[in-house]
Amino acid sequence: MQLESKLPKVGTTIFSVMSQMATENDAINLSQGFPEFPVSQELIDLVYQNMQIGHNQYAPMPGLPVLRKAIAQKIEKTGGVALDFDAEITVTVGATEAIFSSIMALVGKGDEVIVLEPAYDCYIPAIELAGASPVPIALQQPDFSPDWELIKQQISKNTKILMINSPHNPSGAVLNKQDMEELKEILKANPQLMLLSDEVYEHIIFDGREHFSVLNDAFLASRSIVVYSFGKTFHATGWKIGYVVAPEMIMKEIRKVHQYNCFTVHTPSQHAMAEFLQYEKNYLGINDMYEKKRDFFAKAVSNSRFKIVPSYGTYFQLLDYSAISDIPDMEFAEKLIKEHGVASIPVSAFYSERKDDHLLRFCFAKGEETLQKAADILCRI
User: Fold this and answer.
1) Any idea what the CATH number is for the domain that residue 306 is in?
2) pTM above 0.90, yes or no
């Protein structure tokens, strides 16, 4: 029996590879982006209580109305944007499913999707599975800002989606108000074009900077699909719960795929999230906590030979090792695990052509003891 792979270039995701290598070598795991600290006991109790009550059967395909209402209220509170919870919000199996279902619903053979790299590794496989062609464009170094003129040059009549991500994984860069104006100009010049905005780190942004969501502009919102993650906000990445926001016409198509992809999401968790969202402190309070962790880790590695790349959002810190070695980043990351006991992610894994700038991504969503131990090792290299 012979099989022809639909994704012949795709292997196991780099996050799983590096985490497994960390386990095998008993290394401090700052590679995969999951918090080390516990989920709120209140949220855990709410899930358990809803299981006990009997909320254990299928939820409606788009998500529980009570949760979608709570999401709409949260978005209106934080961004002043009024949404139709029934038609414009769908609860998904994490942000990855939201991205996958959106791409599968909206593009196909002959279409093009612009991806700004480095990019999260689920983007391009979804585009290829949909039969469309990814058009990767590198963000500018050293600040990982978009080259809007180059992006405009790469747009053709076949370009259906432009994918953006802010705050940006892996770099921690954030889009600003001028970037939003550039996006408006691009959409006005290309009526066939939609935005797919990955905003899963919306509540993790530093140094007094503001998160500019495409939903905050009525024109951008009318042509955008926006993806969010409860897992990132509430330290519950293993629960795989997120949501997607889009205009009704677009959402109808996304739901057609969503209903056959997974149909619905864990019911008691949806009830729990709806209750937990009623209190702003549960999602607005994480910003300061992560900024302190970023500062702690940055200070702890400041005496090392690694160069810190400024991080303005997410819970990731890039370190440049070019003053230490000129070997490829994957090789250096493996050496760091096997010889020194610290796991990271080589940033070349976020590029389709494996562009190597000698950068490693470290997750600082950990306890101070873990971060200090890792930093002490890095300072000795």
Assistant:
1) 3.90.1150.10
2) yes
